């Protein structure tokens, strides 16, 4: 059975799909048995494509992208080995939905995996109301966190 990772942001059109496609590329490159997807804490954008600025930032960096937004459902906790929130608000929302301690233990913040991130600010900022530079910053933060995410996944796969 594959290791399953999901990224969660607010509307699932900016940050979480960006993180999803960056991790997808890495696990494909390493041929890891990992399934990756994403969702949002809210339903405002369910059924929408990823924000065009997210897609543009991914393409500029050489990543693919195909996405339809969806909302995280509490019944999904059992599906995932790792649930990665993009900011503290998403983490709190996920923890409040979690049915048990084991589920809460699967919830992490993305920037926890970035050794250069300040422990006092692990949020990936929402670029929705910003410009190209804001989306590029999010991509930089996502990419800086990926080595740590991949190490977590590799360790978990070895333990299986």
Automatic annotation (TrEMBL):
Keywords in alphabetical order, please: Hydrolase, Protein phosphatase
Q: What is its EC number?
A: 3.1.3.48
Active-site residue numbers: 9, 15, 126
Domain (Phosphotyrosine protein phosphatase I) ranges: 3-152
Question: What GO terms are given for molecular function?
Answer: protein tyrosine phosphatase activity
Q: Which Gene3D superfamilies match?
A: 3.40.50.2300
Q: SMART domains, alphabetically? A: LMWPc (SM00226)
Q: Is the keyword Hydrolase in the record? A: yes
Top EC class, one word: hydrolase
Q: Which InterPro entries match?
A: LMW_PTPase, Ptyr_pPase, Ptyr_pPase_sf, Tyr_phospatase_low_mol_wt
Tell me the protein family, please: Belongs to the low molecular weight phosphotyrosine protein phosphatase family.
Q: By what name is this protein known?
A: protein-tyrosine-phosphatase
């Amino acid at each position: 059975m594959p290791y399953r990772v999901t990224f969660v942001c607010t509307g699932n059109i900016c940050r979480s799909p960006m993180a999803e496609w960056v991790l997808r590329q890495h696990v494909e490159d390493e041929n890891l048995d990992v399934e990756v997807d994403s969702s949002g804490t809210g339903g405002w954008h369910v059924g929408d494509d990823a924000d065009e600025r997210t897609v543009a930032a991914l393409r500029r960096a050489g990543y693919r992208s195909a996405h339809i937004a969806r909302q995280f459902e509490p019944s999904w906790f059992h599906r995932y080995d790792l649930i990665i929130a993009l900011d503290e608000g998403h983490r709190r929302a996920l923890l409040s939905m979690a049915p048990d301690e084991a589920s809460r233990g699967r919830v992490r913040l993305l920037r926890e995996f970035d050794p250069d991130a300040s422990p006092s600010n692990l949020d990936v900022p929402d670029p929705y109301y910003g410009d190209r530079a804001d989306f590029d910053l999010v991509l930089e933060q996502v990419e800086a966190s990926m080595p740590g995410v991949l190490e977590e996944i590799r360790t978990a796969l070895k333990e299986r």
